[in-house]
Here is the input.
Amino acid sequence: MEGGKAANIVPDLAIAQFYIRATTKKYLLYLSEKVKNCARGASLATGTELEISNYEASYDNMVTNKVLSQRYNDHLKVLGVEDCEKIREFSGSLDMGNVSHICPAIHPYFGIRRGSGLVPHTREFAEATLSGEAYDSMKKTMAALVLTGADVIRDEKLMKAIKDEFEKARDM
Here is the structure.
């Protein structure tokens, strides 16, 4: 960021970076254009040049395929995993969100230390990933994913239901 050295001197160069986030890709595109228009208006009003660029990769919201997620949850239950019904709503964006706009997708989470209140992206979280509980949970998660994938390949009705839901979600 750069904006000048003193409040009473117009700088030769001003740089600002913004994250624009929204609950859906459609609303993000709308909101991004509004923010860009604010910058365009300020540039026009001040007679300055404006350059707008994307300085980081953009990530879309996650669109969870509920049919696919339910089949995955069914396998988790058979494997002894409890409390796997909640589809987590994302308030931000992530790289898997981009994938979910191209093909049906889920973004499973699994417990690494239940009830501990761990916060992702911390040293404590990283250390907890090395626990036996995390390893056991990872094995069950992987097994449920493999079984779900096999079901999708073998069950034409399931594949159609997943695709139908995906197409409806794309139209929204």
Observations:
- Residues 132-154 form the longest helix (23 residues).
- The two ends are 37 Å apart (CA to CA).
- Helices lie at 25-46, 66-78, 95-100, 123-128, 132-154, 156-170.
